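Sanity check. The docking grid for magnesium ion depends on where the pocket ends up, so I'm generating a full predicted complex first rather than guessing from homology. Inputs follow.
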Amino acid sequence: MKILKFGGTSVGSAERMKALVALIKSDEPKIVVLSAMSGTTNALVEIANALYSRENDKAKKLIDALEKKYESVLQELYSKTPSLNKGKELVKNHFEFIRSFTLDMFTANEEKSILAQGELLSTALEHFYLEEIGIDSVLLPALNFMRIDENDEPDLQYIEENLKAELKKHNALPLKGGAGGGLFITQGYICRNAFGEIDNLKRGGSDYTATLIGAALNAEEIQIWTDIDGMHNNDPRIVEKTFPVTELSFDEAAELAYFGAKILHPTCVLPAQKRKVPVRLLNTMQPEAKGTVITDKASSDRITAVAAKDGIIAVNIKSARMLLAYGFLRSVFEIFERYKTPIDMITTSEVAVSVTIDTDKNLDAILKELKEFCSVEVDKDQTIVCVVGSFTAEKQGVAAKILDALKNIPLRMISYGGSENNVSVLVDSKYKKDALVALNKGLFGL
Ligand code: ASP
Ligand code: MG
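Predicted complex below; grid placement will be based on this.
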């Protein structure tokens, strides 16, 4: 069994939905995970925001506009009356549902239900199209097996049991090397939470759906199809000359995804890594391109890629009491833990520690508690620039090479040695582009 995930642009228009068939129609058994059509989730977020702020007229206009878009997709996608009618019925029902929220108070749960509509629509539309052209497929409802627990973490055991039960209904044996087959289509991103309510795996979460399914079934391979030819050595939106990295280890990919390589959802590598299922990143526009394959195999002694993560806040914590004391860091970290705020980078000296976080959600409360026993300074608008690779034996040279490349850029923090896969520096976001360009030159000669 292979898992193939297609992102929003790959189903972004009737034309793309039709073109998708060439990539999914082989006889191999597979589960196809689809995102919402590009732009849809953003539009649904906008609708939900309008409803939250009780701008119901604005919400209605946005809903009408989105529905129009879908109506025109239907006209282009289907050429036979039965499928066109099915499509019309589907779109009408989903938009009636969305519109129903304009009638009374709007809650957080309802927002999640609205956000789920994009994937429900795209998968059903593709399924009807396949039916129209005579290809059998089965729509697997993700809400029947995708689930997160009380901590918003995916519940892999639940997913495995329920997905297998779901597949069994269709006589497919999902296990590696097993017989059976078929073409299954399911929704990315959406799930149920511990209370059984509709929820999601956060923005960009369709990748996560795919790797969770791949892990749950011990799939042969997980393919993530996007509109770029794999993971690049640097951010192609910012740096001119970049190239796709053909092979990555799970550790390298996890660091890159987390530290800003937008091509993958930050935590989606973990389930695949856990069950050692290879992940292949491929380009819908250029299906023959090699892309990137992420496996268990680590290639040693190399600098693989550079990524950057914006929106970082540096918190500098100083206390005279830290001098020769123990337990100080623990009391600092406990506060971040209590507010469920992960720390990305840390640097320490004898009397101070700097940490970075990527959200200001609980910042005020954290600062208030920290200030009870130390002095605190905060720098916002920072960027983590992270160099990823396998630095085992080449260690002596690596840090020097990186710092030399960055010699003209003011560095706020440097983190080295935390893992063999990552050297990170923190810079003011205004230096991000310069830092990425300098590293491209210094590390890759580009
Ligand atoms: N449709 C969702 C989003 O736009 C999930 C995804 O595309 O991965 O974030
Ligand atoms: Mg995506």
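Relevant for the grid: The longest helix spans residues 56-77.
Also worth noting: DSSP finds 14 helices and 16 strands in the chain.
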